[in-house]
Automatic annotation (TrEMBL):
Gene Ontology biological process terms in this record: system process
Domain (EF-hand): residue spans on this chain: 850-885
Name of one Pfam family that matches: GRAM
Disordered: annotated span: 407-439, 904-933
Species per Swiss-Prot/TrEMBL record: Cyclopterus lumpus
Superkingdom of the source species: Eukaryota
UniProt keyword annotations, A-Z: GTPase activation, Repeat
Record bears the keyword Repeat: yes
Entries under SUPFAM superfamilies matching the protein: EF-hand, Ypt/Rab-GAP domain of gyp1p
Protein name, UniProt field: TBC1 domain family member 8
GO terms for MF: calcium ion binding; GTPase activator activity
Every Rab-GAP TBC domain range: 478-665
């Protein structure tokens, strides 16, 4: 395979390679010991060396080198595991390149030419592999070439798909192609001699919409902070809109949210994203949401089939989804028939004899001595083989875990002092003194129990029971108190987690005991606020159980830790389930049923708030028309989603909502919220302000079920199924058509809006934190922030991310407790900082090498905590010193750049004067060109006294030795290149240099100067100078004073930087100002 050319200093280092074929420019070499008869000592040694290397570092046995005659440097351009493969590359080089290379006069041009050719071959191979994954490889290859040609983005900017469409400019459409890549949406059109092209970074997309107007039908509108673009005339608008939303969502989660949202492992590597992977990812997200599976489950097979339903005595057509640990069946109509079979419950998966009535049947046997039949399966043999392979792996894993658990059973079991109650904390039927603790079960409870027992006998019991419309109706009528805990465990599949993790909870409790953290402090503060009126949490037993559940979960998932509202949820779970069961129910809710809800910024809940707002406009248009600003209503819904209405409804009604939640998932909360608004539409429409609207909703929710709960249970008739209070205002008939697929699509779109709103808030907070410390104008500070963020994105877009990403990930992982989230959001590593330094530093200098050296020193100086990253606050402080600070502060910064830690002893200096000993015995007099002579002795003494008298002087700086002073002089000389007063400034520098040399020599002759601060050790024959002496010397030259005090325009520099980015071929053009 062709390789990116890599330098090799010695062509035959340590005699590890044997040359097989050669010519003037290329060598084909074989690894010594490969293909040779055994017994040779050199081959054995090389073979031993290769064998101890890991699989990623092992060397291919064949390689091709590019060599330039007369040079000691070669380049590896190809390698291979077999001689036949590398011979193909050799033949290509001989037939296509060797003759052309002989015409080059300059041999260095040969290396550049060949390296460019090899890179082109690699790019062509990449295009070929990418195109091969598409349905029409030839067309995709052509589109990929056009994409690279038109937009000039780096080769690592991978094209995912493209569409023919129209882009509208006012009322004028432009026909062209919309290219969707991993980081951008790019449009190109060339009609009637007019070219139109622009690129929209996904990181700048704030909103996606489907719009239809008189001229545009089924158009896609992409909004950014600068403008909006409309695209229409797609052959498949639904597919195009879906991919646009997915790519924008993935990019924003990867770029803007450093730790808030989970990103699938496949999507963490953007180079692997293809159209097919996006389709699979969308289906996977839907399956996880529909069946509420663990977020780590991978989707393997999707097959149309029919399942035998004993309750209906027929086969129901639907789709089978298989994942790492589950077999999931869903009827054709979402929610009509759902079957969930954990592989941990499966005994066998077997093929049965195929007949006319039962084509391609598969029998799945489970531990409860039940069997499920699936028919009409395509590719049955392959499907069954894959399922059995995963089943065997899971059974082996369970057996190993069981053997270890049995061996440590006594070690993991909690002692009796831990006080885990074997039963639920308290049966809530009697909460608040509603009756005696020994009161009999009401008639309605008995009726509900009979109905559920009949349902179990017909549909099955346990996690793999059939879930149809009937179970939804039963749950809507209320789950009996005696079955609530069992059904919650079954419907959430927390049972499987409990069975497969025996002893896990007790070990988490033991590990978290005695630990102190921010999460445990918050838990202790909220323990007595959890259902304070309930008797179960008015005693130490209930409080202790709640503490154990919350702290164990915080220890299990430190990324979430503890979030307010988790205490309320865990309290209710403890009332109906055993303590360990409550823990696994909490895991199911926080990690599967409400993903991204309980992180630091509750992004998941805010996304659902935004989805809820759109549902209000769609399902309740009359209310949306009367209340144009729905933000107040959606804000009120935050507690609804976070606590599942437990904090706003009376307890009995709220528990019924939790029942519905475990059946329908988040869809039930959306339906209940819409029903509550619908019931109060008239009052809300007539409300005059947000406060009144919130009072209306609060009063309504407080009264739900109050009449029923105040009546004795025995007074209720038992002739028919009971109707819980919540069902009075939860009309599933009106909002029952809301599906999981619709919710997932809305979430994808609204997550973009929520993340961008967080980004705007982050920017505002960052600017607010920095503004008091700098004198930069608000407009310029905002522009600098955008540049800073853009430079941060560059490495995430096209860099290897090895330094920046690793350092940032480590900083996030360790918490970085010394810095706020705002300070940690965007940070630059050394290459990124040097890039911005070259664009914004006001004194570029006449030597690119010296400017690069100064950039390195500046980064080292700003990286105060040693994490190899510079924050926005540090960056703006540096800019403020250069552009807005007083003369003394600028000189102080220059001084600090030439002493440790900014200047290191190992820093390479190409100057022939590496560290000379400078000496002068001249008096402290300087001769002017005009002949006049100035004595600075008295003037310097007076200025030093004045400087030392200042009360607000910062901490004294270390002294500067001779080597450091030479570097300081080099910087001064490089600052004035191209300035109109260049000659006068050079003369002034010469004067100052001579003056400082005399000061240093005079001090050295007198006595060893006192070291101020902590500097480097100074040799006895070296002299030193202080910051005050250098400052005083510089102040004697008015030309230098005028130059350093000259006003600098940061805004003009930022504008020039944006113009630089706007040059053709510069990929950053698309990152600064989307066109």
């Amino acid at each position: 395979m062709w390789l990116k050319p890599e330098e090799v200093l010695l062509k035959n280092a340590l005699k590890l390679w044997v040359t097989v074929r050669s010519n003037d420019f290329f060598l084909l070499q074989r690894r010594r010991g490969h293909g040779e008869p055994t017994g040779r000592i050199t081959g054995l040694l090389v073979g031993a060396l290769d064998s101890v290397l890991d699989s990623n570092a092992r060397v291919s046995p064949f390689r091709i080198l590019l060599q330039v005659p007369g040079s000691q440097i070669s380049w590896v351009i190809a390698n291979g595991a077999a001689e036949e493969d590398v011979n193909k590359h050799w033949d290509w080089l001989v037939h296509h390149l060797l003759h052309s290379l002989s015409v080059f006069e300059n041999k260095e041009d040969v290396a550049s030419f060949v390296r460019g050719k090899v890179k082109g071959l690699i790019a062509e191979e990449v295009r070929g592999r990418q195109a091969a994954q598409e349905e029409e490889p030839d067309k995709f290859r052509e589109a990929l070439l056009k994409f690279e040609l038109h937009f000039g983005l780096p080769s690592s900017e991978k094209l995912v798909t493209y569409y023919s469409c129209c882009c509208w400019k006012g009322r004028v459409p432009r026909q062209g192609f919309l290219y969707l890549s991993i980081n951008h949406a790019a449009f190109y059109s060339f009609l009637l001699g007019k070219e139109v092209k622009f690129v929209i970074p996904w990181a700048e997309v704030t909103r996606l919409e489907r719009v239809s107007t008189g001229l545009m039908t089924e158009a896609v509108r992409i909004n950014t902070r600068q403008r909006q673009r409309e695209f229409s005339m797609f052959l498949n608008p639904d597919e195009a809109f879906g991919f646009i939303g997915q790519l924008a969502d993935i990019a924003l989660r990867r770029l803007l949210d450093s730790e808030g949202l989970e990103v699938d492992r496949v999507l963490q590597q953007p180079a692997r994203i293809t159209k097919r992977i996006l389709e699979e990812q969308a289906l996977r997200e839907y399956v996880l949401a529909l069946f509420r599976l663990p977020r780590g489950e991978r989707l393997h097979e999707v097959a149309s089939c029919s399942a035998w339903t004993p309750h209906a005595r027929c086969h129901a057509a639907g789709t089978l989804y298989t994942t790492d640990g589950y077999m999931c069946f869903s009827g054709r109509e979402e929610g009509s028939c759902i079957l969930l079979i954990p592989l941990s419950e499966v005994l066998s998966i077997e093929k049965a004899e195929s007949t006319t009535l039962l084509p391609n049947p598969v029998i799945v046997s489970v531990r409860t001595k039940k069997a499920f039949q699936l028919i009409e399966l395509q590719n049955r043999d392959e499907l069954v083989e894959n399922l059995n392979s995963r089943l065997r792996a899971l059974q082996w894993k369970q057996s190993m875990f069981r053997s270890r658990r049995d061996g440590k059973r006594s070690a993991v079991r909690l002692s009796s002092d831990d006080g885990l109650p074997p039963e639920p904390t308290r049966n809530p039927q009697h909460q608040g003194g509603a009756g005696s603790l020994k009161s009999t079960i009401s008639g309605s409870e008995q009726l509900k129990e009979r109905l559920w027992e009949d349902h179990f006998s017909e549909f099955g019991r346990g996690v793999h029971m059939f879930r149809t419309d009937k179970i939804q109706r039963l749950v809507a009528m209320g789950i009996p108190e005696s079955l609530r805990g069992e059904l919650w465990m079954t419907l959430s599949d927390a049972t499987s987690e409990l069975e497969s993790h025996q002893g896990y909870y007790t070990s988490m409790v033991q590990k978290s005991m005695g630990l102190s953290s921010l999460a445990t402090e918050e838990i202790e503060r909220d323990l007595h606020r959890s259902l304070p009126d309930h008797p179960a949490f008015q005693n130490p037993t209930g409080i202790a159980a709640l503490r154990r559940v919350l702290t164990a979960y915080a220890h299990r998932n430190p990324k979430i830790g503890y979030c307010q509202s988790m205490n309320i949820l865990a309290s209710v779970l403890l009332l109906y389930a055993k303590e360990e069961e409550a823990f696994w129910l909490l895991v199911a809710v926080c990690e599967r049923m409400l993903p991204d809800y309980f992180n630091r910024r509750v992004i998941g809940a805010q996304v659902d708030q935004s989805v809820f707002e759109e549902l209000i406009r769609d399902r309740l248009p009359e209310l949306a028309e009367c209340v144009p600003d729905l933000s107040a209503l959606s804000s009120a819904s935050l507690s609804w989603f976070l606590t599942l209405f437990l904090s706003v409804l009376p307890f009995h009604s709220a528990v019924c909502v939790v029942d519905c939640f475990f059946v329908h998932g988040i869809k039930a909360i959306f339906q209940l919220g819409l029903a509550a608004l619908d019931a109060n539409m008239a009052a809300l429409s007539a409300s005059t302000d947000d406060g009144q609207a919130l009072m209306i909703l609060s009063s309504f929710l407080d009264q739900v079920g109050s009449e029923e709960s105040s009546c004795p249970p025995a007074s209720k008739p038992c002739s028919g199924p009971p109707e819980p209070p919540v069902i009075r205002f939860l009309p599933f008939q009106r909002f029952g058509d809301l599906t999981v697929k619709q919710i997932e699509r809305l979430r994808c779109r609204h997550r973009i809006r929520v993340l961008q709103a967080h980004e705007d808030t982050t920017k505002d907070n960052a600017l607010r934190v920095v503004t008091p410390d700098v004198s930069i104008s608000a407009e310029n500070l905002s522009a600098v922030y955008d540049l800073f963020k853009t430079e941060h994105f560059i490495s995430l877009y096209w860099g290897d991310g090895s330094s920046a990403a690793a350092a940032e990930a480590a900083a996030w992982r360790h918490g970085d407790s010394g810095r706020s989230y705002v300070e940690r959001q965007y940070r630059l590593d050394r290459p990124q900082f040097k890039s911005l330094y070259g664009l914004l530093a006001p004194w570029p200098g006449d030597s690119n090498q010296h400017a690069d050296t100064l950039a390195d020193r500046t980064f080292t100086l700003l990286d105060q905590d040693g994490d190899s990253l510079v924050t926005f606050r540090d960056f703006t402080g540096w800019l403020d010193t250069l552009y807005c600070a007083e003369l003394s502060e600028k000189i102080r910064l220059l001084f600090r750049l030439h002493i440790p830690p900014a200047l290191t002893h190992t820093e390479e200096d190409p100057s022939p004067m590496k560290s000379p000993q400078l000496s002068t015995h001249r008096p402290l007099r300087v001769h002017r060109p005009s002949g006049e002579e100035t004595d600075y002795q008295q003037q310097l003494k007076q200025m030093l006294k004045d400087l030392l008298k200042e009360k607000d002087v910062e901490k004294p700086l270390p002294l500067m030795n001779q080597r450091e002073f030479i570097q300081f002089c080099k910087t001064l000389y490089s600052m004035f290149h191209g300035d109109p007063e260049e000659n006068e400034l050079f003369q002034a520098i010469a004067t100052v240099t001579s003056l400082v040399l005399q000061i240093g020599e005079a001090g050295h002759r007198g006595h060893a100067p006192e070291v101020i601060g902590s500097g480097s050790e100074v040799a006895e024959d070296e002299w030193t100078v202080s910051y005050a002496q250098i400052l005083a010397s510089l102040l004697t030259e008015q030309a230098l004073v005028n130059f350093l005090e000259k006003p600098l325009d940061l805004g003009a520099m930022v504008t020039q930087t944006n113009k630089t980015f706007s040059q053709p071929g510069n990929p950053k053009i698309y990152l600064i100002a989307p066109l």
